Amino acid sequence: xxxxxxxxxxxxxxxxxxxxxxxxxxxxxxxxxxxxxxxxxxxxxxxxxxxxxxxxxxxxxxxxxxxxxxxxxxxxxxxxxxxxxxxxxxxxxxxxxxxxxxxxxxxxxxxxxxxxxxxxxxxxxxxxxxxxxxxxxxxxxxxxxxxxxxxxxxxxxxxxxxxxxxxxxxxxxxxxxxxxxxxx
Length: 184
Hints:
The chain is mainly α. Helices cover 74% and strands 0% of the residues. The protein contains 9 helices and no strands.
C-alpha cells in the first residue's frame, strides 16, 4: 500500500491522531507500532523516521491525549462551571477508562515521561478549578484542590469499574468534598 506524500508535520500529526483514535479500546502503553503503521498505510520503519523510538511516539500520543483531556474538562470559559467540569471529567474517564487508568498508573509507577505529562495536565486542571470555583491561586488552595482532584480521580476510576452509586451521586459527592475542603 502506498501512502500519500505528506509533510513531516502532517505525517506526525496523522500518526498521533491514529494513536488517539485507538485510545477508547487500547491503553497508550499497549499501542503497537505495527498497528499504527498499518492504519497509516506506511511501513514500520517509516514511522520511526517521524518518531525515533516507540517511547517518543507514546510520549507524543500521551501529550496529545492530556491536552484533549484538559480542553474537554475545562471547556469554554462560558460553560466552565464546577458542575460542568465535573461532568466532563466523569465523561472522559467513562469513555477512555482503560487508557486513563494506564496513564495514571504509568505516572504513579515511575514512568518519568508519563509522570511529567500527568503533572502538567493535573496542574492545568487545578488552575481551571481554582478559577471556576473562585479561589485564590496560593499554595494552600492549590494543595487543597490537588488533594480533591486525587480523591475525585480515584472515586471516578473506582466507580467506572464498579458503579456502587448513581452517576449523579458521584458528581454530588465530588462537588460536596470540594466545597468542604476549600471552606466554601
